[in-house]
Amino acid sequence: MEVLLVVRGLSNPFSIPFQSLEHMEEKNYDVLVVGTGAGGGAVLWRLCEKWRKNRKSIGVIESGDLLLPTHIYNIPGLRKKWKKYYNEVSNPIGQHLPQFLGAEQVFAVGGRTLFWGAVTPRMHASEFINWPISEQEIDTYYQIAEDIMQIHQASSINSLHLQAILQHLHSKGFHEASPIPSATSHGKTFSSLCFLKNAWEQHPFDFAVKARALQLLMENGKPVGLKVGDHNKKIHVLRAKTIVLAAGSLETPRLLLHSKIPGNTIGHFLTNHSFIKAKGEFISKKVGNISENIRILIPQTDETPYQFQIYINKRLINAVGFGKVESLFDNNLTLDPLSVDEYGIPKIKINFSYSVKDMEIIRQMNEALHQVFNYLGARVVHEKGKAQIHVMEPGEDYHESGTCRIGNDPSQSATNRYGQIHGITGLYVADNSILSSIGASNPTLTTVALAIRIADHISNSYSKERTK
């Protein structure tokens, strides 16, 4: 049985064979990766690149199944049907989380990267002040991530309309406005399936789908394996010397908590973006007649703790704003012993609220977005049943993070500067949950950069063991 995967477009297809969990039970992997979203895919690719000339064994499990062979926008005729496909693999978990109503999970090969908007800014420099990693240190990994993901600014960068709009915004005080950086090249959008393809071309790995990670197995304080459930609810035990969890900011801490992994901050410091949306239409010609699609980013600055993404389609404007949210210990997820899933594992409860400071940033965003529309000669269009600029539910940004955040102090972080759970050799996290803070920037590029760095650390650790 094989899974067909393609990189960006539908040309040059290739296949990676699925393995059964029965087959994988017979091995003891050097590294076992849990999850195939942005973080898991990046770790896998980098390890395969580093180990292309040796015989290290790598296993990968994904709780979902194959849904699409590439990002949905790369398949002719499916762009307008994305919601149908998304609903097939999404879990609207927020329906049962009153304080995080907008949350949804995606269970499929490639995870959310099958549907994401591919907006990939770097995080604002101010965020790294309290990180255990300097901006200079992560810059190298940003460059690697941007190269492998083929990140470019908007294809219309040479557009006279775009330049006129940018100059106008600059003159009005939005000096950092620029084309949106995007993981889209030659009209094709990146997904984590690209990581899987590039990984397979360099080093083989065993890959099982519909394989749900249930519980970590520990011996003498170190991970030795993982209980995994298949689609028939049969339990399997996979063995591994190193385990990398990349199941997402809600599922990864759930697995750690259920496995009774020590760490007082696991599940705490849950962070997201406050999230606003607005639609508008041009009512004057301050920026001329626009006859093309234009995408503009107004990023976070030292003075403005929010980011706007402006999408102009001739006479219409769609805008979204992301606001910085404080990383607070009391914003957390815990296990709910009164509610369990089909495997008998407790589901999660979430305690989350915006602080006074967060609410002030939402107010500032609202005011600033009105200014942007006004400067562009547009007015906000009222949508039925919604405020002109409406605030989305917590979790609806899909940028949840921080629940296993990196740091030097175990009392304030779950993982060390290399994404390894404090005090536990061989247990790593490589998804959005390790982000110490996210400011107002889309988190995916930073997560990929950190995941690549984690893979380098794992590879280097094995090399040091060999030379002892």
TrEMBL record:
Q: Does Flavoprotein show up as a keyword for this record?
A: yes
GO terms (molecular function) for this protein are: flavin adenine dinucleotide binding; oxidoreductase activity, acting on CH-OH group of donors
Q: Which Pfam families match?
A: GMC_oxred_C (PF05199), GMC_oxred_N (PF00732)
Q: Where is the Glucose-methanol-choline oxidoreductase N-terminal domain?
A: 167-273
Sequence ranges assigned to domain Glucose-methanol-choline oxidoreductase C-terminal in this UniProt record: 331-451
Its needed co-factors are:
FAD
What UniProt keywords apply to this chain's record, in alphabetical order? Answer: FAD, Flavoprotein, Oxidoreductase
Protein name, please?
Glucose-methanol-choline oxidoreductase
| Similarity comment: family membership | Belongs to the GMC oxidoreductase family.
Against InterPro entries, the record matches this protein to: FAD/NAD-bd_sf, GMC_OxRdtase_N, GMC_OxRtase_C, P2Ox-like
| SUPFAM superfamilies for the chain | FAD-linked reductases, C-terminal domain, FAD/NAD(P)-binding domain
